[in-house]
């Protein structure tokens, strides 16, 4: 019958035991308290003592069916959880009975007829069919045919004519009743199951099913523990509330404590004791390096999930030796066969970019090819690394190839490898190709838009057939590689113009990611600038004047150009850096051009040309500085002339005074002349923009 479980907190669980006599009830309560007393309190009552409708117990256990039906049933409050206790014998007691010669006739002595008959029924049920048993209790008719009696702990009731008494001790509560009680209180867990199976070992379980299950559990746990003790890694299993359920020998060595001691802690508590932050426990751990007892330990954690819920987990711990292997792995990374960047390395606050990152993370989960489009320096390669790192291929190589860096024939032998003697200069024994090296991993083909038609068809074949043919080879080699390709070229247009194979294009672009240029996410500029400076440990002070200039610049070389600029600034910053010192303004080709409208054919006085003189002078100063020239009064007059305009030196002086008063220029002593302040620079941009 399905009953409701009892949802109550610890320490409040109270169970009444009702039996024929106070003595029996007390004995049963004593047994149960000895087994489950830490979790539940059991109190015994004689059936006469039990008051009608008591409601201060969560459960009532009754010693026999007869007592329940004849005496107690009408006196129990509706809704109370009731069980009739099943009792059995200790294993050693049954062994005594089984040793009695077949055909013997024995009395079974108890305090009441019912009890004596129940004991006989129990002995029969437990397999004592080889002897004849007769009930005996105080007041029963004397019957002297037998000289041997069996009694469950009541030798004082044995009649005097009996010569031998076999005391089979008090009956004990059967494990099936314990299971019922624990289930009802939702207390059936790994710990109580282990306790039950130990108990079941001592008694003769009345339910064979339960006996087998529990013995099986104990047996399995023993085998598991033995097996885990042979494992070289430390293994710790724990249940939903962190209680440690298994702790193997290596774990004992690592933590310097016995499995028994460890099991007094929760897994978090144990790690905390070693100074490992249990907060990191929220997520799954993978190759997490921690220090336990001054030893480098590599820790992995996996959740155990049952029916969609985390019901526990397993921690594995690897000692220093394995860590060395990881260091070897890191050395491999340096060779370029492992992804160095993850999504965490991608700095952005741009909503636009955040969406691209979210798409990339989604794409990473699939195993399809990815095509990453974007201008040079936008972070395409960074995306490729990050995608690999969270993909199912993360534990295998990540091989990056820049397709435009090598001539066609070299790229071919790099990608596909070659057989010995394939061409003059080919290495003895041949060479494996990068596809082969990337087996089970990812190959990143950067600048895919630059590959020749021959390479396009070879690549297409690899994608279609998942096999590579080495240069000079005849044997097809199966490879399992995911391709991530990237280009800053307009592949769709190249396809339309017949410069890129459409079949290859469509295979590559199954998943397509477009990384926006930096000028379309200017909000990222200050963040990236600070990040690059910080990465170099550079002084970030005194750079306020140039922040606006950085934000306004178009960054044709995108994040890479910004990174280089910040490297330059980190090196140059002496606290007096100005906008004019920035590389993009000192490099003439990249400097802000003087706008077209200034270019007037004839020599005309500036005022007559209707030109804003201040703006023109600002432009000229800026242009001169960007070209690395000085911007004194004379130079400005000349520059104005070159534009077909006319201005006197006096006018230039007055204009400069005005500009200085407005805070747009600073006038240096000597030949250096004027230079723009940040607001002067902004004024130039406003005027030209
Ligand atoms: N969002 C970002 N956060 C931090 N660093 C970035 C970011 N985007 C790019 N970078 C850095 O900028 C540099 C250029 O990025 P990357 O090489 O990935 O660009 P790319 O688009 O592949 O360039 P190309 O097309 O020239 O190969 C790298 O050093 C990269 O780490």
TrEMBL record:
<dbReference type="InterPro" id="IPR025943">
    <property type="entry name" value="Sigma_54_int_dom_ATP-bd_2"/>
</dbReference>
<dbReference type="InterPro" id="IPR000014">
    <property type="entry name" value="PAS"/>
</dbReference>
<dbReference type="InterPro" id="IPR002078">
    <property type="entry name" value="Sigma_54_int"/>
</dbReference>
<dbReference type="InterPro" id="IPR013767">
    <property type="entry name" value="PAS_fold"/>
</dbReference>
<keyword id="KW-0067">ATP-binding</keyword>
<feature type="domain" description="PAS">
    <location>
        <begin position="220"/>
        <end position="261"/>
    </location>
</feature>
<protein>
    <submittedName>
        <fullName>AAA family ATPase</fullName>
    </submittedName>
</protein>
<dbReference type="InterPro" id="IPR003593">
    <property type="entry name" value="AAA+_ATPase"/>
</dbReference>
<keyword id="KW-0804">Transcription</keyword>
<dbReference type="InterPro" id="IPR025662">
    <property type="entry name" value="Sigma_54_int_dom_ATP-bd_1"/>
</dbReference>
<dbReference type="InterPro" id="IPR035965">
    <property type="entry name" value="PAS-like_dom_sf"/>
</dbReference>
<dbReference type="Pfam" id="PF25601">
    <property type="entry name" value="AAA_lid_14"/>
</dbReference>
<dbReference type="InterPro" id="IPR036388">
    <property type="entry name" value="WH-like_DNA-bd_sf"/>
</dbReference>
<dbReference type="Pfam" id="PF00158">
    <property type="entry name" value="Sigma54_activat"/>
</dbReference>
<keyword id="KW-0547">Nucleotide-binding</keyword>
<dbReference type="InterPro" id="IPR027417">
    <property type="entry name" value="P-loop_NTPase"/>
</dbReference>
<dbReference type="Pfam" id="PF00989">
    <property type="entry name" value="PAS"/>
</dbReference>
<dbReference type="InterPro" id="IPR025944">
    <property type="entry name" value="Sigma_54_int_dom_CS"/>
</dbReference>
<dbReference type="GO" id="GO:0006355">
    <property type="term" value="P:regulation of DNA-templated transcription"/>
</dbReference>
<keyword id="KW-0805">Transcription regulation</keyword>
<feature type="domain" description="Sigma-54 factor interaction">
    <location>
        <begin position="346"/>
        <end position="571"/>
    </location>
</feature>
<dbReference type="GO" id="GO:0005524">
    <property type="term" value="F:ATP binding"/>
</dbReference>
<dbReference type="GO" id="GO:0003677">
    <property type="term" value="F:DNA binding"/>
</dbReference>
<keyword id="KW-0238">DNA-binding</keyword>
<dbReference type="InterPro" id="IPR058031">
    <property type="entry name" value="AAA_lid_NorR"/>
</dbReference>
